């Protein structure tokens, strides 16, 4: 998606509707800095605001994402193109978050190991030893928890029995047996347990 084109389109429609950035922002319940960011092509409106933004600007979501008015004969094709672009962006974002998950998970494990090693071989004071042990375990638990939260919320799990794709609860992910990002869980659709693989998008 061409963010600059979309931004210019938002700005043009806002002016045609005789709205200031501050006024448009107040209708959406956001800051005028967010509107300015969209119009400068530095970001896209959050999906939460898209429908109301389109209503205020008197355009369709499809036109918003295209950055121009669409002829009726080309509307279907543009809608399909936008869906493909959004799907690709979802996959890209999920891959990026999985990279962060790996960095946090591996990083916290390495720091845990270093702190334990230091406390065993380099620290003689009993009180400091205990503090290092506590800090090491807290660091590991926090890191793993954040990594698991990312894994839970990004992408989908696919049931190997009925191929239903869903986002499980954090509790399900936390307590499930796993091999990498493949977890043994119950599908909410068919109610059967299987080794369910993590996938990037529906």
From TrEMBL:
Residues 10-64 form the HTH cro/C1-type domain. One of its GO terms (molecular function) is DNA binding. The chain crosses the membrane at residues 98-122, 128-148. It comes from the Bacteria. Keywords: DNA-binding, Membrane, Transmembrane, Transmembrane helix. The keyword DNA-binding applies. This is DNA-binding protein. It comes from Faecalibacillus faecis.
């Amino acid at each position: 998606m061409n963010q600059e084109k979309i931004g210019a389109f938002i700005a043009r429609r806002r002016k045609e509707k005789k709205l200031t950035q501050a006024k448009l922002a107040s209708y959406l319940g956001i800051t005028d800095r967010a509107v300015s960011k969209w119009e400068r092509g530095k970001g896209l409106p959050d999906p939460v605001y898209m429908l109301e933004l389109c209503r205020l600007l008197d355009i369709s979501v499809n036109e918003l994402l295209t950055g121009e008015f669409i002829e009726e004969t080309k509307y279907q094709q543009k809608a399909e193109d936008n869906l493909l672009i959004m799907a690709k962006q979802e996959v890209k974002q999920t891959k990026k978050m999985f990279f962060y998950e790996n960095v946090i998970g591996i990083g916290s494990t390495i720091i845990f190991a270093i702190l334990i090693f230091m406390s065993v071989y380099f620290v003689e004071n009993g009180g400091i030893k205990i503090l290092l042990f506590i800090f090491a375990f807290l660091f590991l638990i926090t890191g793993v928890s954040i990594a698991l939260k990312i894994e839970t919320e990004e992408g989908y799990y696919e049931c190997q029995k009925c191929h239903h794709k869903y986002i499980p609860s954090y509790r399900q992910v936390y307590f499930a047996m796993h091999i990498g990002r493949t977890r043994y869980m119950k599908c909410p659709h068919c109610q059967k347990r299987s080794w369910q693989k993590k996938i990037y998008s529906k």
